[in-house]
Design brief:
Elements: E1 6-8, E2 23-29, H1 34-37, E3 38-40, E4 51-53, H2 56-61, E5 65-68, E6 71-74, E7 87-89, E8 91-94, E9 96-97, E10 102-109, E11 117-125, E12 134-139, E13 148-152, E14 158-159, E15 162-163, E16 174-177, H3 185-190, E17 194-200, E18 204-211, H4 218-221, E19 235-238, H5 244-247, E20 251-259, H6 261-267, H7 272-275, H8 281-287, E21 297-307, E22 317-318
Parallel strand pairs: 1-16, 4-7
Antiparallel strand pairs: 2-21, 3-8, 5-6, 6-21, 8-20, 9-22, 10-17, 10-21, 11-12, 11-20, 12-13, 13-16, 14-15, 17-18, 18-19
């Protein structure tokens, strides 16, 4: 082995129309090369979670990261009682950064619903957060059954879902909650997962979800994706109140699982099931390692496509590594 500000998607949504692009493969990460293309983040959790992110060496030795079922496995420590400093987990970020690309992730398993957990699949800009933006594609806490789609930015970006710099720091952002229980955790895992696609252009940020039990577009499986044929996205962020090109740039692709912290910990006690298990989120997470046996990601692939007409203007920027 090697607290959100949300709007419901049920109502009428104005979708941003992206200019039709001819996408070609730029980078492909799978079981043959994933860990060569991603760095391990092993610093203090910026969201104040009860977590200890592991280095590549430690994650490998503790079997928290590696390969399983011809896919990439990213898990958590589910054996240690009262771990000092937080429960062991992993957070990985792509070494390359991307701007206005099509990112398609084929995922077989997400961390299961469990009190205290906060898993996420997202992209984030370099430099001082949140000035180059953050796009949350899969995110939920505790026993949530639906993913939330959220943008975080610096001042001056407002879309139909709200002010993406809310409440003035970007910590809440602008978001929408999916009504589809197959998008997150147990509902997602029960159908064998599915495919998420982030179509990011200068005019809109569109997120699509295709369940494994449904019909994944044939152009995705063929490696020739054409979002203009996929129908309406699960959510779309756009509007004259946000210049996407200036607020979103140079993003790393990130997968992580944290515990408690600024969101899962804050709402832990208000959940009737979780609140009955322990006085605090940290107490429950520390004392119940087996509850997190299924808190793992199983990723078949992440593919990044570029629009040939933009490739010169927005080249990917490789991140340096320690040799």
């Amino acid at each position: 082995m090697f607290t959100k500000h949300l709007s419901c998607l049920g109502g009428l949504v104005a979708f941003g129309v992206a200019t039709q692009a001819a996408y070609t493969i730029q980078d492909s990460y799978d079981q043959t090369n994933f860990f060569e293309g991603f760095d391990f983040f092993n610093y203090q959790d910026p969201t104040n979670g009860f977590v200890k992110y592991q280095s590549a060496i430690d994650a490998n030795s503790q079997s928290l990261a590696g390969y399983a079922n011809d896919a990439i496995y990213l898990g958590v420590d589910y054996t240690t009682v009262n771990p000092a400093g937080g429960r062991g987990s992993v957070r990985v970020s792509s070494k390359k950064t991307y701007t206005q690309n099509l990112i398609i992730a084929d995922i077989a398993h997400q961390p299961a619903a469990a009190c205290g957990t906060w898993p996420a699949f997202w992209t984030v800009g370099d430099g001082q957060w949140p000035y180059n933006g953050e796009i949350d594609i899969i995110e939920g806490v505790n026993l949530a059954t639906n993913t939330t789609y959220t943008l975080h930015t610096g001042p001056g970006c407002t879309v139909s879902q709200g002010n993406c710099n809310a409440p003035g720091s970007g910590s809440l952002g602008c978001g929408a909650s999916s009504e589809d229980t197959q998008t997150l955790a147990d509902g997602f895992n029960e159908i064998g997962g599915g495919v998420y696609a982030l179509e990011w252009t200068s005019s809109a940020i569109n997120i699509f979800f295709f369940p494994r039990s449904g019909k994944i577009p044939s152009d995705i499986t063929a490696g020739t994706p054409d979002p203009s044929t996929w129908g309406s996205p699960s959510t779309s962020f756009s509007g004259s109140g946000c210049d996407i090109s200036s607020h979103f740039q140079n993003h790393q692709i990130v997968f992580d699982t944290t515990f408690c912290g600024d969101w899962a910990g804050k709402v832990f006690s208000s959940d009737p099931v979780c609140g009955s298990k322990a006085a605090t989120c940290q107490e429950y997470v520390a004392s119940n390692p087996d509850a997190f046996r299924d808190s793992y990601w199983l990723i078949n692939s992440v593919k990044v496509y570029s629009d040939d007409s933009r490739s010169e203007k927005y080249a990917t920027i490789p991140k340096p590594f320690s040799a």
